[in-house]
Amino acid sequence: MKSEVLSVKEKIGYGMGAPPSHIIFDNVMLYMMFFYTDIFGIPAGFVGTMFLVARALDAISDPCMGLLADRTRSRWGKFRPWVLFGALPFGIVCVLAYSTPDLSMNGKMIYAAITYTLLTLLYTIVNIPYCALGGVITNDPTQRISLQSWRFVLATAGGMLSTVLMMPLVNLIGGDNKPLGFQGGIAVLSVVAFMMLAFCFFTTKERVEAPPTTTSMREDLRDIWQNDQWRIVGLLTIFNILAVCVRGGAMMYYVTWILGTPEVFVAFLTTYCVGNLIGSALAKPLTDWKCKVTI
């Protein structure tokens, strides 16, 4: 395939696929534990167990989704259809996960388990193909780096959008009615996320055609597991995500119950986001100075 310079519009379009996942994931990480325990009234022990089971499910669903997307054949390509057609269910289930139906305690726990599990699966369905999309838009290494630069910049912006706007939206929409506020706030963010994913679909094009896969999914999974480097990176990723989720999930409790000033949560998170931006900016010079593994 002949390499071509991608337009800024397409680079931005590809980058627009990153914020939705961060809008939802960062929201879940920061607010969902608090929402379940303090708003919906579910026992913290059950919520923690539910989160742990969902992470274990991710370890299975993520590689399976990658293999499924790689075998997709459509007039839109392999990965773009998943980004578009998964976007609407993703947004709807996110709103359902932040809803508080009038149920018994057992009913609440079952409802939370079903909606949260569906949310994590739909996150996988959208995000795994999106991450792979950058590799088939162009085969030019320089253009791929440029694509990823747009992706990470806009992903950071999406995370900040979620963390900074969520509580003001909750207060604006719900006032003292926190269940309504959380549901309305996430509905607004879900609409924004859907529009971004649709923009990503309509402004990108898959140009790199990989050869047809001749092995079975079972063989691919076996090959992945036999790769010791994949196991090491996978284990490190699990611990990193656990650390991020624990830290993020504790923030709302810390500000509400320890500091006793929930109104400063947005300012508290803003400093957190600034730290993330500084860390992201330092990543390249640090990895230019030392190898990535050492850093």
Automatic annotation (TrEMBL):
Keyword Cell membrane part of the UniProt annotation: yes
Q: Which UniProt keywords apply?
A: Cell membrane, Membrane, Transmembrane, Transmembrane helix, Transport
GO MF terms here are: symporter activity
Q: Does the keyword Zinc-finger apply?
A: no
What does the record list as GO biological process?
A: carbohydrate transport; sodium ion transport
Question: Which InterPro entries does this chain map to?
Answer: MFS_2 (IPR039672), MFS_trans_sf (IPR036259), Na/Gal_symport (IPR001927), Na/Gal_symport_CS (IPR018043)
Superkingdom assignment: Bacteria
Q: Where in the cell is it found?
A: Cell membrane
Membrane topology per record: Multi-pass membrane protein
Homology family? Belongs to the sodium:galactoside symporter (TC 2.A.2) family.
Q: What is this protein called?
A: Inner membrane symporter yicJ
The organism is Escherichia coli DORA_A_5_14_21
